[in-house]
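Marked as duplicate of an earlier ticket. Keeping the data here for the record.
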Amino acid sequence: MTGDEITDAIQRVLAGNSAEFSVLVREFSLPVRSFIHARVRNAEDAEDLAQESFIAAFRGLAKFEIGQSFEAWLMGIARHRVQGHFREEWRRHRTSEKFREECLVRIGSELDGMQQDAGNDALKRLMDCVEKLPERMRQVIRARMRAEDGTKTANLLNTTRGAIYMIQLRANSLLKDCMMKGTQ
């Protein structure tokens, strides 16, 4: 599309013909998606961000200055969406890490208390309890015992880090219950 065709399409959208925006989406879909995919390696996230970028552009079209580069304006929106995505990922990662550390501290102190109460058999009972867990949980617990990174375990089990932490949390709960049965 030429600059005049882009301007005409924008003016038709601003005049109330919202369906005309699909012409702009078709024209700029590939560069926007390519830009985002190059930065966000997860295809689903990249597609969501591209969609959000076009929605934001549609909603903010009245702020676009006719005569400026529509593509540059649109890429700026996409860049802001990508930056927001990484900020949110960082927040989620920090929250997940904090949650995991709190769980480990809590479970660790509870296991320490059980070991003091139960004597030298506690470690053997714990290992027996680990063996009673479902296979995926055993793999996660063993990886944590080896101090492996959650990303490595997630890749091994073909899942996400968040799923690994949830499996670990459930496994810790089952281990606690199993250990408590052994002390009663």
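See parent ticket for discussion. The mean pLDDT is 86.
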